[in-house]
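Changelog-adjacent note: as of this version, every example in the card shows the full chain rather than a window. The one below runs 124 residues end to end.
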Amino acid sequence: VQLQASGGGLVQAGGSLRLSCTAAGSTFDGYDIGWFRQAPGKAREGVACISSEDSSPHYSFFVKGRFTISSDNPKNTFYLQMNSLKPEDTARYYCAAGRRCRVVADTVLPFGSWGQGTLVTVSS
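Full-length structure tokens:
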């Protein structure tokens, strides 16, 4: 499934952004979906995902209570609403659909094939 992330930008600490991920020419029905990020010089990390088995959202501990993942299947689009942003949230954010949405040690594990992503910069 080819996905395109958008909605990134520059925001001040405490602000909000909503990222979108669109499946062009295909659908992510039946797949787990997720958001991931990678900051310069750091490893990739999972942010949030939704399991296709039970439609339950899962979050890494460092975004719980601040970020919300949601999907609009008829529009072939899913979202990441990010509130109370912190400078440490600065990263390129990627979306993916695949297998599978898992959480280990309160952290979403990366999965799927990532596209180009969208850059989020949070200034202090």
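Structural remarks: The mean pLDDT is 94.
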